[in-house]
């Protein structure tokens, strides 16, 4: 007899506005929700945010989830998450967003059974929080100025600007003019060559940027090293760092790693990645895809372990079927979360 009732739901979520990065433009995002209900009627909610860049689509997630849920059933205990994550990783290669969705649902269910929020399960202080950046996608320069002004009006004090165009300096100058006092991150999403990256970073440094994310392609680790050794600004690795085992390989060529749940395959692995990065003297940023609170809320609970957060994925959606951890003006309000679990609850 089955211990758990499970449900898989694939959804296409419209974005508030078309969102462009160096690799392309999206107008919507396909996600998959998974719900695991135990014999007491408690429900754990998880979300998958698959991206083709890492070999996944909503269809592959949907196809692999029954096999992953069979592992949950075989273990039969929602508190044995380390074992479940290991068995999922060993028996289902790749598919990190799908595995993460199950891990999130298990953490949500386990902490609901205990009646505590996820940060408490991890022994974290909810007041040790930080502010998430809000991302300005690539657009006409004037439109990027307007988006920056709108973000300032919504109270965001930290912005991340997508680069990788032939007018990167003009974009950063314009955003800086529109928001002189915000903290500013930039992300080239692999668009530059190593030489180009060093030149551009030289020109961008005077605009007061905190770091430059993924200047060169992940397939060019020597290029990343070349940039890191010459850069006037800290370098963050995103596409170059997926799981904890990647950290030692890039530790001598970046300052910051960008942890994303959709890349790493689970929340236990996410915490392992954070501590591996710390052991290598690196700082940690938690990022996200354009995705629902069903998969962003658990990342917000990691806030006390982070140096930077870019968890604005739900804010970029026209409508999110789930509410999550409140983030007024980007401030991750973990202490304001008055429910157990990840905090993800159905809103529509
Ligand atoms: Mg990035």
From TrEMBL:
<dbReference type="InterPro" id="IPR029017">
    <property type="entry name" value="Enolase-like_N"/>
</dbReference>
<dbReference type="InterPro" id="IPR013341">
    <property type="entry name" value="Mandelate_racemase_N_dom"/>
</dbReference>
<dbReference type="InterPro" id="IPR029065">
    <property type="entry name" value="Enolase_C-like"/>
</dbReference>
<dbReference type="GO" id="GO:0016855">
    <property type="term" value="F:racemase and epimerase activity, acting on amino acids and derivatives"/>
</dbReference>
<keyword id="KW-0413">Isomerase</keyword>
<keyword id="KW-0479">Metal-binding</keyword>
<dbReference type="Pfam" id="PF13378">
    <property type="entry name" value="MR_MLE_C"/>
</dbReference>
<protein>
    <submittedName>
        <fullName>Chloromuconate cycloisomerase</fullName>
    </submittedName>
</protein>
<dbReference type="InterPro" id="IPR036849">
    <property type="entry name" value="Enolase-like_C_sf"/>
</dbReference>
<dbReference type="InterPro" id="IPR034603">
    <property type="entry name" value="Dipeptide_epimerase"/>
</dbReference>
<keyword id="KW-0460">Magnesium</keyword>
<dbReference type="InterPro" id="IPR034593">
    <property type="entry name" value="DgoD-like"/>
</dbReference>
<dbReference type="Pfam" id="PF02746">
    <property type="entry name" value="MR_MLE_N"/>
</dbReference>
<dbReference type="InterPro" id="IPR013342">
    <property type="entry name" value="Mandelate_racemase_C"/>
</dbReference>
<dbReference type="InterPro" id="IPR018110">
    <property type="entry name" value="Mandel_Rmase/mucon_lact_enz_CS"/>
</dbReference>
<feature type="domain" description="Mandelate racemase/muconate lactonizing enzyme C-terminal">
    <location>
        <begin position="141"/>
        <end position="234"/>
    </location>
</feature>
<comment type="similarity">
    <text>Belongs to the mandelate racemase/muconate lactonizing enzyme family.</text>
</comment>
<dbReference type="GO" id="GO:0009063">
    <property type="term" value="P:amino acid catabolic process"/>
</dbReference>
<dbReference type="GO" id="GO:0046872">
    <property type="term" value="F:metal ion binding"/>
</dbReference>
């Amino acid at each position: 007899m089955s211990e758990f009732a499970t449900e898989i739901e694939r959804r296409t979520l419209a974005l508030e506005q078309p969102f462009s990065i160096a690799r392309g433009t999206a107008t919507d995002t396909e996600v998959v929700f998974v719900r695991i209900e135990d014999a007491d009627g408690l429900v754990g909610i998880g979300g998958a945010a698959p991206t083709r860049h890492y070999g996944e689509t909503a269809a592959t997630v949907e196809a692999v989830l029954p096999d992953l849920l069979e592992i949950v059933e075989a273990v039969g205990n929602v508190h044995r998450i380390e074992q479940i994550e290991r068995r999922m990783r060993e028996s289902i290669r790749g598919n990190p967003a799908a595995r993460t969705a199950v891990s999130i649902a298990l953490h949500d269910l386990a902490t609901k059974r205990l009646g505590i929020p996820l940060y408490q399960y991890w022994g974290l202080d909810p007041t040790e929080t930080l502010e998430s950046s809000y991302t300005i996608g690539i657009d006409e320069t004037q439109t990027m100025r307007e988006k920056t002004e709108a973000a300032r009006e919504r109270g965001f004090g930290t912005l991340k600007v997508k680069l990788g165009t032939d007018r990167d300096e003009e974009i950063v100058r314009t955003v800086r003019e529109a928001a002189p006092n915000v903290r500013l991150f930039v992300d080239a999403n692999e668009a530059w060559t190593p030489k180009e990256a060093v030149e551009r970073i030289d020109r961008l440094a005077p605009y007061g940027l905190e770091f430059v994310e993924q200047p060169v392609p992940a397939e060019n680790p020597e290029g990343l090293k070349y940039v890191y050794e010459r850069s006037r600004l800290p370098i963050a690795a995103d596409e170059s760092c997926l799981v904890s085992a990647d950290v030692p390989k890039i530790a001598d060529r970046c300052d910051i790693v960008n942890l994303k749940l959709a890349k790493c395959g689970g929340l236990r692995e996410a915490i392992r990645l954070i501590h591996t990065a710390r052991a290598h003297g690196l700082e940690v940023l938690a990022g996200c895809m354009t995705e629902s609170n069903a998969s962003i809320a658990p990342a917000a609970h990691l806030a006390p372990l982070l140096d930077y957060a870019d968890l604005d994925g739900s804010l970029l959606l026209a409508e999110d079927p789930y509410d999550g951890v409140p983030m007024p003006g980007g401030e991750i309000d973990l202490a304001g979360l008055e429910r157990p679990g990840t905090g993800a609850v159905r809103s529509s």
